[in-house]
């Protein structure tokens, strides 16, 4: 598996004085995800938790809903010019009898660390049917606003690689009581969420009833969709949501919080779950 960080030379200028020093950067490498041996998607990601990333991506695509539906997840053999295995191709083999939606094999998906899925034919193609219909809307969980405001600091404290690079997004999974259940980092915010969701699937925890998903950046449509696909009732972001993310939250019963900064926040949908 590739390294999470790499060292590079940098010219550092401070108060008009230049000096040369090494700098620690977050690593970014391509990962090809295959389904039953067939190429499905390529994403630019930070190496680590590749198997969780792959199965989490398939949850978002509506392919997987339980760990029992996966027969095996393996690295495909591949080597660079020096003969070193690059570990940049992962194959997910489904268990016998698990259907493969046509949409996952009809398109080539390229994802980037910045925007996530690109090349979707239409908005309708993005609105993949969840394996847990109505889970977000029916979830009775309530979260105190005061507790919610403390979560960004808890997430930040758990970001180990960010402390060394300053260049990673994070996704944290919390209980309604504020317990940090899992945290993953990646150069792409959508990858960080897929890693969290994938680890939950591997642990037999889907749907994630009563959970709060906190992301370190903005809340895009894609992140809202990933939350709905995993049965998560509350999505919070430290930055702004997009208009489509709000629309999806209103349609699906997802509670969507943006600009979460201490005691201040904007609740764009599902405000009945946030108690004062």
TrEMBL record:
Gene: fdhD
Name of this chain's protein: Sulfur carrier protein FdhD
Lineage summary: Bacteria, Bacillati, Actinomycetota, Actinomycetes, Kitasatosporales
Gene Ontology molecular function, alphabetical: sulfur carrier activity; sulfurtransferase activity
Function summary: Required for formate dehydrogenase (FDH) activity. Acts as a sulfur carrier protein that transfers sulfur from IscS to the molybdenum cofactor prior to its insertion into FDH.
Location of the active site: 115
Transmembrane segments: none
SUPFAM superfamilies on file: Cytidine deaminase-like (SSF53927)
Compartments reported by the entry: Cytoplasm
CC per GO annotation: cytoplasm
A Pfam family matched in the record: FdhD-NarQ
Family: Belongs to the FdhD family.
InterPro entries recorded: Cytidine_deaminase-like (IPR016193), FdhD (IPR003786)
Organism: Streptomyces xanthophaeus
Record-level GO BP terms: Mo-molybdopterin cofactor biosynthetic process
Keywords from the UniProt entry: Cytoplasm, Molybdenum cofactor biosynthesis
Chief place where the protein resides: cytoplasm
